[in-house]
Amino acid sequence: MIVNSVIFLIAAALLPPLILIWIVDRMDKLEREPRSLLWGLFLRGMLAMFPILVLEVVADQFIDFFPWRPLVYLFLAYFVVPGFVEEGIKYRVLLRRTWRDPNFNYRFDGVVYAVFVSLGFAAVENVMYVLTSGFSTAIARAVFSIPGHAMFGVVMGAGIGRAKWLFDHQQREQAASARSRAWILAAILHGLYDFLLVGFGWLFYVYFILLVIYVIRLLRQSAREDGPTR
Which of 63, 135, 159, 178 is deepest in the core (most CB within 10 A)? Predict the structure, then answer.
């Protein structure tokens, strides 16, 4: 009975990220990516949880050491740490595995790769929360946290796809700048997301709606403008 309950909770935690992965993967019309590459990225996203946990614990201990004003503390703990640490690790995982892979030959590939990494991380994070907090937590995280990770992945991936196009057209400096912007923008959006979610009520919901609109437009534009990087 207990085993069945655990299996049910894990399945409930994994279903939302897998649905989002399927949606983004279906938008890759021109050249489908190897399944081994995509699920390898998903696994790497899951494994990224461990260095992220270590870095966030260290960062939280550092922040707790100082007597910050409440708003400054919230900014550091919920904007800087989750935004830049989580997106930074996902960025490194993404680049190390895909940047020089010959399969990365279309601009939209960057979006697909980044979403697989982001939702791999979101999946294991959701499983951990569900196993410790229950099914209601899975519902709440499916509504806000998992779509958030997917949206940050789209933003980062679109930037990486553009950077890859610039790199393959011998514009190395512009490519480096585009890569950095992809990470920084995803980190800022993620940090603001968590910061507003902590206790800013209606302001978070306004931000969430605007972010959804922006990412849907970016996703459609990226799919429409997809083409070879070379």
Answer: 159
